[in-house]
Every structure is written in C-alpha cells, then in structure tokens.
Amino acid sequence: MRKKITQNKKTVLTRLTSFLIAGSIIVAPICAVHATPTATQKNSSASTKTTQTIRKGSSTSAKTAQTTHKGSSASAKTTPAVKKGSSASAKTTQTTKKSSQASSKSSLTKITISAAGDCTLGSDIKSPASVNFYAKYREKKNPSYFLKKVKPIFKRDDMTLVNFEGTLTNRTTRAPKTFAFKGNASYLKILQKGSVESVSFANNHCRDYGVGSYRDTIKTFRKQKMPFASYGKTTIYKTKGKKIGMVAVNGLDGVSSSKNYIKSGLHKLKKQKADLIIVSMHCGIERTYTPNADQKTLAHYAIDHGANLVLGHHPHVLQGIEKYKSAYIVYSLANFCFGGNTNPPDKDTMIYQQTFVFQNDKLKKTNRIKIIPCSVSSSSGINNYQPTPATGKKATKIIQRVNRYSKSLGKVSFGKNGKIRSY
Ligand SMILES: [Zn+2]
C-alpha cells in the first residue's frame, strides 16, 4: 500500500574469505576499504544540505503524498549533478496517492520505523559470475524478488530505512581497492518495490568508482525520489504530519569529522522543526560483535545532541543494542540485501522496529521496540540476496545473540517474540 514519494587516501585493510562450493571457489568479500571524504565532502558543518520528502497521510490508508526538494536555506550548497536546471532553486513535485480521510481525532500519533542493514545492490565485478548479484538479477528479471519476503513487514510501517552500501553507476574506473561495488541505476527499484522509503549513504563504498560514482548514485536517488542522507546532506521524510529528519555519517573517516556532520546536521534539522531525528552511523570493526570506542563515542554524541535513534552498520554482523539516556543505539544491523558477498558465513540479521508516540506533538518516552530476526538469504547454503524472516529455533537463536551482545551495554533484552522485555 505504501509507495514513497519524495522528495582517497585509502587505508586498505582487506580480508578475503574463500568458500569452496560445488567445486568452485567463491570469493566472499566484506567491505573493508576505508575511504576518507573527498573534496566534495569536506567541511560539512557550514554547508549541510537538506532534502525534504513529504509523505502525508495519517491513518493506515490515508495516502496523500507530497514531495518537496528544497535547496538548503541559508547555506545553499550546489549539489553535484542535480536535476536539470534546478540546482540551487527549490523544486517541488506533488504526487497524490489515493486519498482518504484519516479523521481519527486522537492527539496520539504513532510513527513506526523499520531499520535494516547493508544493502549492496550490485557486486564486485570480480565476484564469481555465476552466483553474484548481477547473475541473480538477470535470472530473476524482477526487482521485486529481492525484498519479497520482508516487504509485508516494511509495508506496514511508516518509514523503512536501510544502509545503501555501494554505487549505482556505469563508470568503469574501479577504485584500487580489494572490493568495489557497483550496480545499475535500475537496481534502485529493488528498494522501492520492497517498500523502503529512505537510505543512509555515507560509508566506505559510496565512491567505489570514484567521486563520479558517488554523484551518479545521488543523481539516481534524486531522479527516483529516494530520500537519502549522506554526510552533510540531511533529509526530512514526512509522514502522518510528522517530520523525520535523518543524518548519515561514516565514522571510518574519523570521529571528529563525523561529529561535525552530526552536530551541523542535527542543528539544521532542528531548525527545520524535525519531530524525530535518526542518525545513521557507519562505524566499527568488521566481523566483531562488540562495538568499539568510536561507535560508542559517536552514538552517545548524537544522542547528547538530540538524536532520537542511532542506527549503526559496517561490522556486517549483528551487535548489541544500548539504551542511552532515553534513546536507543543499534550498534550494528549487519548485512541485509547484500550483494557484496556470495556466501557470508554469518547470515543472521534483523529488522529493528521502533514505534515513536507523539502526544499533542510532544514525543512521549516510550519503549515500543521489536526486533525481527532474519537471514540475509532464503537459502542457507549460499547468498541468494533475498533477506527472509527467520522462524522457530533459528529466530530464537538470533534473538538470543542480540541479547547476549546487548548485555555488556546495559539492560536491553528481548523476549522470544522479539519484543523488548527490559531496558
Ligand atoms: Zn562498510
């Protein structure tokens, strides 16, 4: 029912894991190249740019959507490769979905956010041609295949946010790194068909085919009206009359530059009267189940400066959840629809869901949280790039893992049904 409308110096530290499957070596890349921001990104603070995505509607069926791309107010920053002739000027698009009344006169507004981890729509061109993401896309001939199993979950929320890890580009100048990801611009449909409403785009793979590939990807987000947050570019997504502001930083670039992006992003979003602010943070160490000092520092900093939720990624595996002050930190959402690895050894992942409740426009202190255990693949022996909710013992095992990882971070733990039971 919901469709969204809108709105190097490199440190190479790579690991290679090989898997022997059916007699063929499958190279399983994990993202491990840490790129520093390039000239286009520098000095975030003064120049945050915000895109606004508005999706009005209220009750479950009211769907009047409106999209406004606003050029940022005071600090007009020219964005690379913007829509024809509109660069600095505001562009407004309005789209109306089937409207209906939402006249429940309640002063309570509930906003449910679903968050999932790394979505790499594409592959490394060196990955095994018979089983990589490109092959699957060609085989299925249908972008809906990929998120089919989780769409029923994403469809029922008010906004789904994932980490977009890779590029959408036709460029052939692959960055000199062990793993570089790219996909065709049309792959963005995978997210749109899967009811994903927004992406974070600040990570160590968003320039895998050069700065141009970063711009190409953003151009595609804009063209396809996919709200995104990326370094100094913040975004606002509107639903049920509330503004959800988003900031995305890459902590691998350094804690202090990320703090600057967070601080300036939050400042900007508050000025724009965001009702809720989510900070996405790409940080930590791959394949570790415990957050490192940088993750903690950045997450706490974001909440100290007004973030209502911090979503982490980069370790590729699950980490724990912490309650800090009255907000939550999900340190690592793991992989999700991940074309970066043809067979990750740890396929456990989750969808984190939180419902924020507003009473008379004021955000109430609630703890309505649920984790939905999933696998990155609907096949256990290989990655078929189709994340799937886990059931039975497998689901229990994933919840227990999250509980175990959360233990050292505080009191957060989840019951068998995935609902939070202590915090
Ligand atoms: Zn990463």
TrEMBL record:
Residues 83-103 have a biased composition (Low complexity). The keyword Phosphoprotein does not apply. It comes from the Bacteria. Keywords: Signal. Residues 112-340 form the Capsule synthesis protein CapA domain. Residues 1-35 form the signal peptide. Pfam families: PGA_cap (PF09587). SMART domains: PGA_cap (SM00854). Residues 38-78 have a biased composition (Polar residues). The keyword Transmembrane does not apply. Gene3D superfamilies: 3.60.21.10. Residues 38-103 are annotated as: Disordered. Belongs to the CapA family. PANTHER family: PGA BIOSYNTHESIS PROTEIN CAPA (PTHR33393:SF13), POLYGLUTAMINE SYNTHESIS ACCESSORY PROTEIN RV0574C-RELATED (PTHR33393). This is CapA family protein.
